[in-house]
Specification:
Shape: elongated
Number of helices: 10
Radius of gyration: 23 Å
Number of strands: 4
Number of domains: 2
Largest sheet: 4 strands, antiparallel
Helix content: 55-70%
Order of helices and strands: EHEEHEHHHHHHHH
Distance between the termini: 74 Å
Length: about 325
């Protein structure tokens, strides 16, 4: 066996060494060394194995380089202010490209289009559902704020989930854990807060935890066990915290707070989309196409389930009423 060196980007920590080492060992080779600064990976293997090893490294979410990282020396690192300025301009450029349906951001533009169409269609479905399942002494006008919150939270959560699903095969370990935590937090907190306000902390916590843990664990699974744990813990914390805040604010300005909370999570969702595209957008490999039927179907399923729980689920003695 001979030693071969090639370069990859996305290597962040010792966990990356373990992931790459396991992938290399599965092919009968040995990881000799790994430099996270330059991205150099030295492998001891037969020459005919090198191609398969590179494919295995790419499959784990690391992009191959032709040369060492350009900024391996600390002296060549850009100033913090320049980095922040560059990141701001990149985010601004991406926002313009997505809103302008630029070909460079066709997946993100399609996702935005699906989200907008789903929002208005789901709004109509939710209004019809509330009218169909209402008791005669209930008013739709009183429930309108919660209908809007359910629809907005559902579409935002599904959009974040679907964007991650598109690129999840190309995430490195660090990005995968961050994505799992964020996607677990968004639906867990928002849905937990909504159900907590209408049904109490027990039901709100259970629903928020369930949705947040499932979404977070699945999205974080691309980073292995650590990503799954990160996503599940995010779902646990967000589900209970969302329901608790709603119960604590029943006698305060609950609806304005939930509106502000939704806006904050929308901004976080935008940041997540930028992170996902920055880390994985444009990398080689197949991506999952954005299907409107699947997107809207997931939105409809979640929103309908939350609506049934709100209308027919067990409720605490003191909850929000229209």
């Amino acid at each position: 066996m001979n030693q071969h060196t090639f370069y990859a980007s996305g290597i962040e920590c010792s966990s990356c060494r373990a992931v790459i080492g396991k992938a290399v060992s599965a092919l009968g080779a040995r990881l000799v060394s790994l430099d996270p600064v330059s991205g150099a990976i030295t492998i001891e293997c037969n020459p005919e194995q090198l191609g398969s090893i590179k494919e295995a490294v790419v499959a784990k979410g690391y992009a191959l380089r032709l040369a060492p990282a350009a900024c391996a020396s600390p002296l060549l690192q850009p100033l913090a202010s320049q980095t922040e300025k560059t990141a701001f301009h990149r985010a601004k450029k991406m926002a313009k490209g997505v809103l302008g349906f630029s070909p460079a951001y066709k997946l993100e533009s399609a996702l935005l289009r699906n989200a907008l169409l789903s929002f208005f269609l789901l709004l109509a479905f939710e209004a019809l559902a509330f009218l169909a399942f209402f008791s005669p002494n209930q008013s739709l006008n009183g429930w309108l704020p919660f209908i809007l919150l359910i629809v907005f939270s559902t579409v935002l959560s599904v959009a974040a989930f679907w964007h991650v699903r598109t690129y999840r095969a190309h995430f490195n370990c660090m990005t995968g854990m961050m994505v799992g935590m964020t996607v677990g937090m968004i639906p867990g907190f928002l849905i937990g807060a909504i159900v907590g306000a209408t049904n109490g902390m027990f039901v709100g916590s259970l629903v928020g935890m369930l949705v947040g843990m499932i979404a977070g664990a699945w999205c974080g699974s691309c980073a292995g066990v650590m990503g799954v744990m990160e996503g599940m813990m995010a779902g646990v914390m967000s589900g209970t915290m969302g329901a608790m805040l709603s119960v604590m604010m029943l006698s305060d300005n609950l609806l304005p707070f939930l509106a502000i909370l939704s806006a904050v999570f929308a901004a976080i969702g935008g940041g997540l989309s930028y992170l996902v595209y920055k880390e994985a957008g444009g990398k080689l490999g197949d991506v999952v196409p954005v299907s409107f039927i699947s997107f809207f179907g997931m939105c409809l399923l979640i929103a309908f389930g939350v609506t049934l729980i709100i209308l027919y689920g067990p409720a605490a003695a003191v909850v929000w009423r229209a």
